[in-house]
Design brief:
Elements (H helix, E strand, L loop, with lengths): L4 H12 L4 H10 L5 H5 L4 H4 L14 H5 L4 H13 L4 H11 L1 H11 L5 H29 L4 H7 L19 E7 L14 E8 L2 E5 L9 E4 L4 E5 L3 E5 L5 E5 L3 H15 L3 H4 L10 E10 L3 E8 L7 E4 L2 E4 L5 E3 L6 H4 L2 E4 L18 H12 L7 E6 L5 H14 L4 E6 H8 L5 E6 L3 E7 L2 E2 L5 E3 L3 H13 L8 H14 L6 H10 L6 E4 L12 E4 L2 H4 L17 H10 L6 H5 L2 E4 L8 H12 L8 E2 L7 H11 L3 H4 L3 H7 L10
Parallel strand pairs: 8-14, 14-15, 16-22, 22-23
Antiparallel strand pairs: 1-2, 1-7, 2-3, 3-4, 5-6, 6-7, 8-9, 9-10, 11-12, 11-13, 16-17, 17-18, 17-19, 20-21
Helix pairs in contact: 1-2, 6-7, 10-18, 16-24, 17-18, 21-23
Length: 666
Amino acid sequence: MIISRIGWYTSLRCVEGSDDSRCYNYHGECDSGLTDDQRSSCSTAEECDLEEDTDSAKGSLPIDSIAESPTFTDRANMFQNVEYHKSDKKNKSKRIIDEYEKPKRIIEDYEKPKLKGKNVENIFNELHISNNKVDDIRQVRNTSSSWDPIELLEALYRLDISNEPQRKSTSKYINKEGYLEKLPSGRKKATYWNPWKKKYIKLKDGFLFCYDNLRAEQPSLTLQLMGGHVETLDNKMLGVDDQKGHYLVLRCSDEDAIESWENALQTQCAEDFVNAYTIPCPRPIAIHKKVVIIDLGSCSVRAGILMAQPTLPKVFFPTVCATNKISQKSSFGFEALRPTVRKNSELSFPLHPSAQVTKYSIDVSVFPDLFKKVFQELNVYPEDYKVQLSMPRNLSLKTKEKIAQVLLDDFKVKGINLTHQAILSLHAYNSKSGIIVDIGDRMDIIPIIEGYIVESGVTRLPYGGQRMIHHLKHALAEKNISIVNNVETYLARYVLEQLCYVAEDYTDELQRFHTSPEELEMSISTSHFFKNDSLWNEVILDIGRFHVPEGIFTPENWGLDNPGLHKLVHHAIQECGVDLRREMSRSIYLSGGVTLLPGLVERLQTEVDKLTPKTITPKVHASEYRYHMSYIGGCLIALEENFDEICITKDTLKKEGITCLKKWHT
């Protein structure tokens, strides 16, 4: 006789039920010994021949396997009674119930354990504590929904314009100019085909400019000498090596000239980073010309009016938009994050890559309101100004056309020039060639040679600061701090900037943490951002301080199958020409807010050094103002004499169409 699982389950159902014929028929069907296919082909009980079932047709399960069930005896007795009373359906159901009255009582006894008074008291105490915790969490959530983050945003977007440090030189340049004889670059000996030629040499603020003659307006050769080397050669000659792949031999007229030029060149080669990069000037200074500088980033918007020298932006706010659900009115920046505004609005980040399948690569519908806010904050009439605009990524021609139409048609600006942030950052470093490492909301590694992008070496990744904050939220959750909405994310960003760092050696830092975790633990107060009591009065981190940012160099920590930052930089160097790799290795320039993390500059230099030949020593450049480098570079572009020529006007766009937008370096 087969012991069917379905029959066993139905028996339990019958125990709870009554003398039901449907239950009995189900037993008979399951106990027939037929296969599922045979049973499905039978339309009635008579077709299945239940009453005249033979022993050979009944189950073939070994008795040992059946006996493994803890209730085997009970089931065997049940089915024997069923066999003896097939003709009496009511008696069968009654016997089944009688057989299982005892197990039913056992189950009831098990479901009602006898608890002592002390155990009951402990359980109720635990429930009371849990309820209190739930009430506390609910209170925090309610507080965050009505929380005004303005004080936090002011801390994140603070610009102390009046206290901008002026240029402070740690070494004094000796600027000098005059005629010298020069060999072609890379040559150490004169030949018939490569003779000495008289050139006008000018040394100024760490640069060497070579002119064909005194009247020449543009130099034929420009070298940045910072970090270079000068040596004295025979026959009144000087060798100048900029340590970037360029070697220059100069010949003086006499010994006194050699000593004078050597001293001047030595001062130009000193590593004075304060003077090497563009330093923003303090306000107030005179307005140079009517140009508005706008830097649109994925996380932040910067804007200002062009001055006689580069400055920090005057307007600085988060790139967040709140659209009212009823009136469809848009608010930006601090105003969008106020509780009274976001209560009836939908928050969006318009410069993040668009999730919609459209002809535009970003959300262009918000540009009119966004530009309107910028012009209002600057208190200018847009029709009187030209615009230097920077964007964080490559844009399609349709997107560029839409931006141009908004500014030229809606706001009637006089002209517009659009440039990629990476190129502007390179300008701010006073260089035309190098590897730009821009890490903000996204991560871009872009090799540029003489102002032209080497496309094969470009890497653009959709993760960066936002991915770091995402993993920081998990680290904070382990400390019982839950961050669930976009407004609270700014608190995580504040914690990231204040507590996190990049480890010099990740393995050693892990070992240090396991040995003495209290040494790495650090806390920061956040109570001043909340008017009411909150569980977020203090944030404590230990391993998360260096584990969260490690994903930049070890993407496996973030669950990503991508090369680390140092490998991407090395790839960009390798994609350049062989004769340029030394120069590019010495010209790695950082920009973006994430590069401000302590330890990142040193770690990147160490990791890239491991990948380059021993004869090459890479150099990572990090300006103190790299958080605003693209805006500073925009000021430099607008200050150039040919800025009016590179701008596109409304007449140009109407006459040449969309093809005139291709000249923009984006």
